[in-house]
Design brief:
Blueprint (H helix, E strand, L loop, with lengths): L3 H9 L1 H22 L9 H6 L1 H15 L8 H14 L6 H16 L5 H31 L8 E10 L4 E8 L13 E7 L5 E7 L9 E6 L11 H9 L5 E4 L16 E6 L3 H14 L5 E7 L8 H10 L3 E7 L14 E2 L4 H7 L6 E6 L1 H13 L7 E5 L6
Parallel strand pairs: 7-8, 7-11, 8-9, 9-10, 11-12
Antiparallel strand pairs: 1-2, 1-6, 2-5, 3-4, 3-6
């Protein structure tokens, strides 16, 4: 257990972490993958190549050090981390490996400042965090294995249908190869997909379940990530789009995640999405419209143009069937053949705060998903409009700590 003296030492490292945290995490990943290359299959190597993964870990280590006296404030972050870890198959035996290389990286980056006392303090701090993560993750593993229709590890699913939703987004309809039951997942949750790339390396990626749970199949709606700047093309999304068709088999983890609508409430619900961030919103919309038909839903989605816009026909049909559902589609680019009210509703970008004020939705719960810039802008706008943090819920698509 951490002593107060060790907590003080960890806190004293905060300035160094702010200055050199990214150097530390780059050192950590480099030495771990060199010593344990078999662990690469647990990490998104595309995010490694762009530095996104290293930056995420640097911020997490800093946050842990800053809150070492009261780690309860990190509970929401811990929930996200444990769900991602379980979906990727990270187990208790991986933590000593990570700890060994993290401490070695601290020692190398801090140099003479990494005294015996400093390294002992960080070893104790890491041990405390690892124990908490292992305990929480074991509970999730147990739940996955004991839930009706559930499973532990990886389960093979057969692709029964594929649908091209836009120029860069496709849906995959999946059934278990054993024809067994599906678990009662919550809309907004995600699964991991495990595939093998052209080099023979196993790749794992998370994708939101894009349909409500009352079906005999699961649906994934995936954007093909093309190469852009220094960011390489997405290996798994490309493999799914190019190499996976009807009849093929892919492996999935048990559904995880905490980005879920509180169905104990009947307050208005505002679903805000940008780009492929629409995927968890589809399941939420379908489920709430069925289970709480009298609940007001405001669905706002932003995308570049009609070419990349997915699921518009389904959403418009839902709006026709449910009088409590209001739909607003925003296009950045309007084409000559685009029809207002059919393809899009407004040109430009979503302003969540403006929606809150104009539609008198101060008592609504707001769910946001999309690129980092989109989410940051919407959260800032909502806060400026006076919406409390307790009513703002977000799911970011990008690098996790795993």
């Amino acid at each position: 257990m951490l002593t107060q003296a060790q907590r003080d030492i960890v806190k004293s490292c905060v300035p160094a972490l702010k200055a050199h945290g990214l150097t530390l995490t780059k050192n950590f990943y480099s030495r771990m993958f060199q010593a344990n290359p078999e662990l690469k299959h647990l990490f998104n190597m595309s995010h490694q190549a762009t530095g996104e993964q290293q930056q995420a870990l640097a911020l997490a280590v800093l946050g842990y050090a800053e809150n070492i006296d009261d780690t309860s404030v990190l509970a929401p972050v811990i929930k996200v981390i444990t769900a991602k870890h379980v979906s990727m198959g990270i187990r208790a035996e991986h933590y000593p490996i990570v700890g060994r290389h993290l401490l070695a990286a601290i020692g190398e980056v801090m140099g003479s400042a990494a005294t015996t006392q400093v390294l002992e303090a960080w070893a104790a701090a890491y041990g405390q965090l690892a124990d908490a993560l292992i305990e929480a993750e074991q509970a999730l593993y147990t739940n996955a294995a004991t839930t009706k229709g559930g499973w532990s590890g990886w389960r093979p699913f057969r692709v029964i249908r594929t649908v091209r939703e836009s120029s860069e987004i496709a849906s995959f309809y999946l059934k278990p190869t054993d024809d067994g039951l599906l678990p009662p997942f919550q809309p907004g949750q995600f699964v991991s997909v495990r595939t093998m790339d052209a080099t023979g390396m196993t790749q794992v990626r998370q994708y939101s379940l894009s349909d409500a749970p009352h079906h005999d199949h699961l649906r994934l709606t995936v954007k093909r990530q093309d190469a852009s700047g220094h960011a390489p093309a997405g290996k798994v999304s490309t493999a799914l789009h190019v190499g996976v068709g009807e009849g093929d088999v892919i492996e999935l983890s048990f559904p995880q995640g905490h980005f879920m609508v509180d169905q104990e409430k009947d307050t208005p619900l505002v679903l805000l999405s940008g780009g492929v961030g629409i995927t968890p919103m589809l399941g939420m919309l379908g489920h709430i419209a069925r289970e709480q038909p009298k609940r007001l839903i405001h669905f706002a989605h932003a995308t570049r143009n009609r070419d990349v816009h997915a699921m518009n026909d389904w959403i418009r049909t839902m709006a026709e069937r449910h009088e409590k559902l209001k739909v607003e589609i925003y296009y950045e680019e309007i084409g000559a053949a685009d029809v207002a009210g059919r393809h899009y509703d407004k040109q430009g970008r979503i302003d969540a705060g403006q929606i809150a004020v104009q539609d008198h939705l101060a008592d609504a719960d707001y769910y946001i998903c999309g690129p980092r810039g989109f989410m940051s802008a919407q959260m800032a706008s909502l806060k400026q409009a006076g919406i409390p943090d307790s009513r703002i819920h977000a799911e970011f698509f990008g690098a996790s700590l795993g």
